[in-house]
């Protein structure tokens, strides 16, 4: 049963039907031309269900010919419309030959086969293969691929596809002809083709069983020196997966191509990953520490998909979290081993608390395994990916690392070469451990953010500690009824005598009490240590205990979290009481002074301990977000800190060494702490401008430069503008660095931002056709500039709406992602609600609006 939603097809998870035909083998031949690429597809097919026609998916294709077992089909034997090709009365086993034509040049959606600059490139996940050829474009149809690519030899030195290269030659007409074979049956979404001229970096990896794998990285010509870090990261990822999960690579070659036009971060196509160049290219002068970190983690992510995603894939797209949640979890564990584990976890927690909690509170709320979808591309979300990873992490917490690894091994072995479901995954975990995971399974079907209210009661006379936990998941836009979940709650008990106990509480009921006997001293309780579950914690721990935890907990994440809680409360207090409460207590200033004067061994953690929660984190705690007040209070707090701690801030800044750049934990921690100091110094230091200018001029790396530019946004606008102008001048030829410039301009909290954004849109490197450019400017504006995006006159909303309308015709997938900040209109006061709604209504009126944008806007307005 499918449902029409205003003429749009809604698909439901419950409606899954196995495919009516299978495709054992497909031979594809591409004759590449900008506007008339010809694709010949020869498929070996077998009927699985009697009495049904064959319905192949296909869009934006011109059918040139179709033949059954070599004979052209008569016109009445098939039927074509805008979405499919139906073939009637077929035998049980047959060969179908289909020739189609398409125009990569006019493909601005960057889905299917597209031409960007001089490079042909494909993107097939989720449903892009249907823009290449008529096919059963669904993840449970696995076929063996043979691919031939033909293109002018001079212009296209590299013609790449999945698997192993079988042959290569130049024909008499000057065309290069290359043949590929991928021995592993795969779904169409993992198909890839790239044709172009590149700089090629080569390396080698020897697997734990001694097989040689050649590693090949393709980047734009002239950027060869920026590829080495990614290549080294790939080897670290290959080694890590062998060590941690005993998983080895399976082909003789692993190729990674970096392209500048790309809708997302990267894509795990079998043996031929395609990456957004932003997540490959790096050198110290142009990439920040954060860029290096992201490159390593995304290189890892795509590599880890080879097992969790490719060898075992998804039965249908509702199961997306089966591969994405699991693979994000794997990349997080990898990053935690390569970089600072505490910082990795803090970053993950921040993302859940801001974007994911917001998504669950929005009209787009969905479980990590969605129930209904109009446009699949809209479900590559923080919920499916990052909450999905949290669910996997909870499973590991509940089962223990060893059993979790055994369960994963069984799952991969049992389903190797298959398309599986989330239930298959849980079943393997259950079979290995003997634990009943029925209740845990609710995390897959239930959306929303559980609220966990905790309290503690210590009775000295009986030496007992009672911990009381209550869980409630409020109704969400998609689901009104909620059941109690299995929530692993890690706690730490900090005793006055400096001893520490750690426990894992498994909460299963709506309300539950845990009693500890023989507790002879009253401890401070650290709740939800290491963010052991993606829930909102509500507790009554007093301010002094929070500061105590921030100082003494063993878990760095818990220490950081205590500070975040402390500040959130202070902010809430200021909001509800008089403004005189904005005076910060001495205790917190003392503690911050202590960290500044004795930053300890873990400078990165110290930097985080000294950082106030950002606007989004604070906003998440309010039903109705008090925009101006939050911005004002945050600013007041920062000002006070900068005045009262002026001297230790300056001293801390001054002793941090400027050393020649190298990307490593210790050095990036120094830079992180320096950036935090700078972010306060700008509020009060008499010579803030000099400090900034000096750092800007002497920095040998992008991290220290960006820290200056970001901090200077708080100063009067001319200083920021001068620095940005200089920066833009220096980097006017480097698109990836210009993205940083676009983002800085767009996140500038001053009202000049509107004119500045307009100017930037005229920059020679800006293009509405390039997702990186558009995101740099518009996501930065709508997600990192609350003051101007949420302007009371609605100018910010208008800017975003107009951009979305423009973009929808070019690239609907990217346009739909830009809609997100408007979806939460119900969270603002009536005047802003009205303005946001009318922006959405304006978008809803687009003629020929895409499914992508339609689905989100209509869910939000209904
Ligand atoms: N599967 C990819 C990943 O997680 C992401 C992805 C999904 C994607 N759809 C895409 C990438 C479209 C680019 C374009 O790594
Ligand atoms: Zn992924």
Automatic annotation (TrEMBL):
State the similarity comment.
Belongs to the peptidase M1 family.
Q: Which GO terms describe its molecular function?
A: alanyl aminopeptidase activity
* NCBIfam families, per database record: pepN_proteo
Query: What Gene3D superfamilies does the database record attribute to this sequence?
Result: 2.60.40.1840, 3.30.2010.30, Neutral Protease Domain 2, Peptidase M1, alanyl aminopeptidase, C-terminal domain, tricorn interacting facor f3 domain
Name the UniProt record assigns to this protein: Aminopeptidase N
- Every copy of the Peptidase M1 alanyl aminopeptidase Ig-like fold domain together lies at 448-538
UniProt organism field: Rheinheimera maricola
Q: Does the keyword Disulfide bond apply?
A: no
Q: Which InterPro entries match?
A: Aminopeptidase_N-like_N, Aminopeptidase_N-like_N_sf, PepN_Ig-like_sf, Peptidase_M1, Peptidase_M1_dom, Peptidase_M1_pepN, Peptidase_M1_pepN_C, Peptidase_M1_pepN_C_sf
Q: What is its EC number?
A: 3.4.11.2
Write out the entry's keywords from A to Z. Aminopeptidase, Hydrolase, Metal-binding, Metalloprotease, Protease, Zinc
Ranges for domain Peptidase M1 membrane alanine aminopeptidase come to 229-440
- Ranges where the Peptidase M1 alanyl aminopeptidase C-terminal domain occurs: 543-862
- Which leading EC class covers this enzyme? hydrolase
Question: Superkingdom of the source?
Answer: Bacteria
Primary gene name: pepN
């Amino acid at each position: 049963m499918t449902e029409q939603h205003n003429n749009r097809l809604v698909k439901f998870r419950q409606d899954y039907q196995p495919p009516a035909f299978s495709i054992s083998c497909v031979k594809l031949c591409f004759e590449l031309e900008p506007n008339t690429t010809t694709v010949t597809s020869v498929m070996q097919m077998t009927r699985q269900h009697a009495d049904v026609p064959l319905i192949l998916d296909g869009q934006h294709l011109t059918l040139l010919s179709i033949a059954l077992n070599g004979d052209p089909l008569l016109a009445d034997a098939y039927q074509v419309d805008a979405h499919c090709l139906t073939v009637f009365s077929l035998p049980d086993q047959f060969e179908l030959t289909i020739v189609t034509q398409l125009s990569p040049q006019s493909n601005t959606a960057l889905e299917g086969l597209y031409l960007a600059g001089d490079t042909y490139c494909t993107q097939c996940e989720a449903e892009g293969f249907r823009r290449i050829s008529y096919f059963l474009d669904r993840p449970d149809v696995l076929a063996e691929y043979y691919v031939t690519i033909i293109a002018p030899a001079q212009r296209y030195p590299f013609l790449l596809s999945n698997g192993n290269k079988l042959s290569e030659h130049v024909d008499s007409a000057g065309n290069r002809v290359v043949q590929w074979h991928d021995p592993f049956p795969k779904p169409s979404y993992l198909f890839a083709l790239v044709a172009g001229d590149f700089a090629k970096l080569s390396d080698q990896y020897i697997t734990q069983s001694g097989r040689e794998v050649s590693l090949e990285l393709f980047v734009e010509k002239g950027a060869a020196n920026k590829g080495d870090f990614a290549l080294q990261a790939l080897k670290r990822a290959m080694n890590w997966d062998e060590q941690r999960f005993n998983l080895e690579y399976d082909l003789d070659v692993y190729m990674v191509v970096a392209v500048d036009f790309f809708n997302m971060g990267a894509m795990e196509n079998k043996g031929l990953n395609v990456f957004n160049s932003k997540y490959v290219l790096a050198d110290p002068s142009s990439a920040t520490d954060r860029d290096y970190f992201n490159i390593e983690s995304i290189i890892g992510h795509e590599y880890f998909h080879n097992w969790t995603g490719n060898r075992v894939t998804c039965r249908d797209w509702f199961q997306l979290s089966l591969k994405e949640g699991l693979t994000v979890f794997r990349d997080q564990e990898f990053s935690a081993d390569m970089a600072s584990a505490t910082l990795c976890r803090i970053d993950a927690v921040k993302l859940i608390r801001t974007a994911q909690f917001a998504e669950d509170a929005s009209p787009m709320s969905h479980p990590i395994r969605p129930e209904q979808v109009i446009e699949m591309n809209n479900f590559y979300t923080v919920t499916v990916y990052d909450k999905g990873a949290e669910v996997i992490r909870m499973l590991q917490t509940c089962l223990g690392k060893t059993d979790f690894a055994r369960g994963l091994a069984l799952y991969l072995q049992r389903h190797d070469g298959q398309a599986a479901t989330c239930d298959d995954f849980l079943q393997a975990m259950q079979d290995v451990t003997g634990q009943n995971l029925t209740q845990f399974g609710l995390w897959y079907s239930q959306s929303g953010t559980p609220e966990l209210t905790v309290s503690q009661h210590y009775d000295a006379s009986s030496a007992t500690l009672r911990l009381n936990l209550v869980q409630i998941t409020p109704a969400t836009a998609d689901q009104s009824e909620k059941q109690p979940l299995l929530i692993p709650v890690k706690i730490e008990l900090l005793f006055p005598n400096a001893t520490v106990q750690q426990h894992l509480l498994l909460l299963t009921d709506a309300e539950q009490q845990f009693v500890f006997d023989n507790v002879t001293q009253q401890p401070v309780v650290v709740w939800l240590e290491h963010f052991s579950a993606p829930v909102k914690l509500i507790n009554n721990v007093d301010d002094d205990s929070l500061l105590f935890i921030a100082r003494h907990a063993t878990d760095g994440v818990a220490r950081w979290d205590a500070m975040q809680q402390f500040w959130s409360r202070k902010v809430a207090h200021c909001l509800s009481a008089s403004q005189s409460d904005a005076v910060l207590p001495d205790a917190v200033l003392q503690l911050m002074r202590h960290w500044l004067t004795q930053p300890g061994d873990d400078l990165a953690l110290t930097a985080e301990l000294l950082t106030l929660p950002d606007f989004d984190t604070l906003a998440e705690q309010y039903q109705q977000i008090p925009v101006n007040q939050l911005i004002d209070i945050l600013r007041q707090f920062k000002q006070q800190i900068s005045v009262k701690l002026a001297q230790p801030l300056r001293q801390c800044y001054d002793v941090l060494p400027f050393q020649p750049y190298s990307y490593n934990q210790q050095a990036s921690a120094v830079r992180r702490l320096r950036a935090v100091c700078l972010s306060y110094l700008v509020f009060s230091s008499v010579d803030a401008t000099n400090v900034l200018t000096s750092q800007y001029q002497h920095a040998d790396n992008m991290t220290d430069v960006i820290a200056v530019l970001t901090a200077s946004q708080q100063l009067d606008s001319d200083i920021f503008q001068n620095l940005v102008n200089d920066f833009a001048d220096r980097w006017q030829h480097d698109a990836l660095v210009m993205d940083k410039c676009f983002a800085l301009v767009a996140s500038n909290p001053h009202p000049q931002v509107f004119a500045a954004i307009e100017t930037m849109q005229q920059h020679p490197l800006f293009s509405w056709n390039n997702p990186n450019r558009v995101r740099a400017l518009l996501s930065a504006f709508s997600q990192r500039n609350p003051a101007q995006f949420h302007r009371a006159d609605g100018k910010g909303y208008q800017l975003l709406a107009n951009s979305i309308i423009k973009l929808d015709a070019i690239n609907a997938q990217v346009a739909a992602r830009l809609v997100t900040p408007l979806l939460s209109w119900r969270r603002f006061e009536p005047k802003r609600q009205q303005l946001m709604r009318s922006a959405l209504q304006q978008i809803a009126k687009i003629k020929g609006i895409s499914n992508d944008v339609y689905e989100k806007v209509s869910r939000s307005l209904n």
